[in-house]
Amino acid sequence: MNKILQVIPNLNSGGAEKFVVDLSNAMYKTHRNVCIISLEKIENGFFIQKLNPKIEVISLNKTPGFSLRCVFKMFKAIKQTKPDVINTHINGLNYILPIIPFLKAKIFHTIHNDAFKESGKLRRKVLKILYRRKIIHPITISTESNLSYQKAYENSLASLIDNGVTKPNLSERYKEVVTEINNLKKNKATRILINIARITPQKNHLRLLKSFKELNEENVALLIIGDKRNDQLELFEEFISKIGENVHYLGVKKNIGDYLSCSDAFVLSSDFEGLPISLLEAISMGVVPICTPVGGIKDVIQSNKIGFLSTELTSHALRDQLLNFLKCSDAEVSKLKQRCEEVFINKYTIDITLEKYLSVYEEK
Question: Which residues contact 80 (CB under 8 A, 6 or more apart)?
Answer without folding.
Answer: none
